[in-house]
Design a protein that fits this description.
- With about 375 residues, the protein is mainly alpha-helical.
- The strands form 2 sheets. The chain has a two-stranded antiparallel sheet.
- The chain has a single domain, classed as ABC transporter involved in vitamin B12 uptake, BtuC (Orthogonal Bundle), CATH 1.10.3470.
- Helix 1 packs parallel to helix 12 and helix 2 crosses helix 12.
- The protein is globular.
């Protein structure tokens, strides 16, 4: 004789409300998830028809992938921090300092490129840790803390370079290959972005760490009361972001092959736009990995097309600034819609009389 089934009766969700909620979500939910990729596809079609001899070419594709790789890595770093409910406005300044530091270690200290990569990544982790401690221990608003540290790093940048380029002779080819190499025609920087995005996607979507980070960003107090170690995950997000910025800096140094004292700040706005615009796609209402990558690609396509149409040097900042305004507004709207849908579902279930489905105990008693 087997054990008696003592599982509690299950509550059957009425088909009517569920069907109504599903129908209401329908097309609008699909559009909210995939509007950004469709916009990117539309831009590609328009520019390809308008610029038939220059835009739909392998050279343009390779240029977009290579040029946007740095922005994509910074945007993914920003995404991690936004996921836990904060901002990191030091990513551009950190990129500039670490890029300069990379070439300085090469030309001034004559280190091999391998140790340089390790040292720079560790330096990025330290920058992220300082940001995290300012936010979690000193309790300074992340907007102020990271912006202040960013300007502090910018000061170190100018002190280290004395306002001049750090240059030298004999840039190591293996170091340069970190940027110039290709695999199956795909630029190496784009491959780094793909690998990084896959790792972050697995962590954020399929592990407890990712769920806890989203919980912290959604409601820090509720997460804390649920036993989530808020400080630990916030620090982890900032440190990981600092390390990703360092990787981007190494790749940028391999591309420029000189140390620039003011190269970083120009990347802050595109990275921030990528992270915020990414919250409007794939998983509308919250930052996510593939939404961020798609957002950066759409920005790259838009800028490349406008430049080939004859856009002047001021097209980039105008395009990025306008897109940021739209992205923040759209992300907020998507978050509000997501919350409203959840409340609608809960109300639909509560408003209908519950029914119970018979269990095995009700129908058979003791299994034979």
């Amino acid at each position: 004789m087997s054990d008696i089934d003592i599982s509690p009766p299950t509550r059957a969700v009425p088909a009517g409300p569920a069907r109504r909620v599903k129908a209401a979500r329908g097309g609008s939910h699909f559009l909210s998830r995939y509007a950004l990729p469709m916009l990117g596809l539309l831009l590609i079609i328009v520019f390809s028809l308008t610029l038939r001899s220059t835009f739909p070419t392998s050279r343009t594709v390779s240029s977009i992938l290579s040029d946007q790789a740095t922005v994509a890595m910074l945007a993914l770093a920003e995404m991690l921090v936004v996921a836990v409910g904060h901002y990191d406005l030091s990513v551009g300044y950190g990129l500039g300092l670490l890029e300069l530091f990379s070439t300085g270690l090469l030309f001034r200290n004559h280190l091999a490129w391998g140790p340089i990569v390790v040292i720079v990544i560790l330096a990025g982790a330290v920058i992220g840790l300082v940001n995290g401690l300012l936010v979690t221990v000193a309790k300074i608003d992340s907007f102020i803390a990271t912006l202040g540290l960013g300007y502090f790093l910018y000061g170190i940048d100018n002190w280290y370079s004395q306002g001049q380029q750090v240059i030298g002779v004999g840039f190591p080819q293996p170091f340069a290959d970190l940027n110039s190499a290709k695999l199956l025609g795909i630029p190496a920087p784009a491959i780094y972005v793909i690998v990084l995005a896959l790792i972050l996607w697995v962590v954020m979507e399929f592990t407890p760490t990712g769920r806890y980070m989203y919980a912290v960003g959604s409601n820090q107090r509720a997460a804390e009361l649920s036993g989530v170690k808020v400080r630990r995950y916030t620090l982890a997000a900032f440190v990981a972001a600092g390390m990703i910025v360092a990787i981007a800096a190494v790749v940028l140094a391999a591309k420029l092959q000189v140390g620039e004292s003011d190269v970083g700040p120009e990347f802050l706005l595109p990275a921030f736009v990528g992270a915020m615009l990414g919250a409007t796609a794939i998983r509308p209402g919250r930052v996510n990995v593939w939404g961020t990558v798609i957002a950066v690609l759409v920005l790259g396509v838009g800028i490349a097309g406008l430049e080939q149409l004859g856009g002047a040097f001021f097209v980039d900042p105008m395009f990025n600034g306008g897109t940021l305004i739209v992205a923040v507004g759209a992300a907020g709207f998507a978050a509000r819609r997501r919350l409203a849908r959840r409340k609608t579902q809960e109300s639909a279930v509560r408003s209908t009389p519950s029914t119970t489905t018979p269990t095995s105990t009700d129908t058979e008693g003791v299994a034979r």
